[in-house]
Design a protein that fits this description.
By secondary structure, the protein is α/β, with parallel strands linked by helices. It has helices spanning about 5-10, 55-60, 100-115, 135, 150-170, 185-195, 195-210, 230-235, 245-255, 260; strands at about 35-40, 65-70, 80, 90-95, 120-125, 140-145, 175-180, 215-220, 240, 270-275, 275-280. The protein has a single domain, classed as P-loop containing nucleotide triphosphate hydrolases (Rossmann fold). The strands form 2 sheets. It has an 8-stranded mixed beta sheet, sandwiched between helices. It is globular, with a radius of gyration of 18 Å. The two termini are about 30 Å apart. About 45% of the residues are buried. The model is unreliable at about 1-40 and about 290-304 (pLDDT under 50).
């Protein structure tokens, strides 16, 4: 069976868990059921530190079009996502402050640029950490980047929602879009101050975008979870969870495997739940600065 066929047959949705993790990628325990990671031969020595993104891509080998890399597991299986299959849904990256959420988001976006031409995958970013976004600005895959408090941020949200509606109405899909939000809480505060109806637009986009290849990937500090409406949190079907010191918060996020969240290496490791199985993974290392200084206003490109 082709790898692309394996991916599409194995990215199954789990039944809703009684936690903040309603659904996730599913991990196939049976041989040949590879879920959201490559079914690769296991190495003798476990992976004990994060590889570089280039090392990880080289080890995985050829991936199907529209694939993006999520992370590297200790047993040398590797998490990646096929953007043409909407079943995993939008992704929330959460954990304590400085657990590595921005780094993971940046790695995912850089993998999209490394593996796909702009005609296939593009990304747009709303961020409260503009200096850390610099490595993303030099790629042709980069569509627009705005600060969370900028007046253009709500406009970008509406543009993404309009794109989903146009595609639902029959407009051909020419490329997948990653709508990245670094610090969801900051954006929600800005939307509430501007127009509270925009929060419902965001929830709708999170829920419905992946069907039209518009994927929301957002970061959120774990202490802010109780400040976000349940309807917004529930719209995210996949959670990537970093180190969380609070036992109560960890249990709310991942249920019975909560103590394992406290064992993750802050800044380098995340995990997700497959049923009752906990799968930790390493965030690939990337360059923290672009090769050349880049001053960014926006790119005059049309997303269709």
């Amino acid at each position: 069976m082709l790898l692309a066929d394996q991916l599409k047959s194995s990215l199954q949705m789990l039944a809703k868990l009684e936690t903040l993790l309603p659904r996730a990628f599913t991990a196939g325990a049976e041989e040949g059921e590879c879920a959201a990671y490559a079914n690769l031969p296991r190495a003798d020595a476990p992976l004990e530190s994060a590889p570089t993104l280039e090392e990880l891509i080289a080890e995985i080998g050829p991936l199907p079009p529209h694939a993006i890399v999520i992370g590297a597991c200790a047993d040398h299986s590797h998490l990646f996502l096929d953007l043409t299959d909407p079943r995993p849904g939008s992704i929330l990256i959460t954990g304590d402050i400085q657990c590595g959420k921005t780094r993971l988001l940046r790695s995912i976006l850089l993998s999209a640029a490394r593996l796909n031409p702009a005609r296939r995958v593009r990304y747009a970013l709303i961020t409260s950490r503009f200096p850390e976004a610099k490595p993303l600005l030099t790629h042709t895959n980069c569509y627009k980047v705005f600060a969370a408090h900028a007046e253009q941020a709500p406009q970008l949200l509406l543009e993404m929602a309009d794109l989903v509606e146009q595609r639902q109405a029959g407009q051909p899909i020419s490329n997948a879009i990653l709508f990245a939000i670094d610090d969801l809480m900051r954006l929600l505060e800005a939307l509430e101050a501007s127009d509270t109806t925009l929060i419902e637009q965001l929830r709708w986009l999170i829920r419905n975008g992946p069907e039209m290849q518009v994927w929301t990937i957002a970061t959120l500090n774990a202490p802010d979870l109780d400040q976000v409406a349940a309807s917004v949190l529930d719209a995210f079907q996949t959670r990537l969870v970093g180190r969380t010191e609070s036992a109560e918060t960890a249990a709310a996020l991942v249920g019975g495997v909560g103590p394992k969240v406290q064992e993750l290496t802050a800044g380098s490791q995340f995990g997700l739940v497959f049923g009752e199985q906990w799968m930790p993974f390493w965030t690939p290392l990337t360059e923290t600065e672009p090769d050349q200084e880049s001053r960014y206003e926006y790119r005059n490109a049309v997303v269709r």
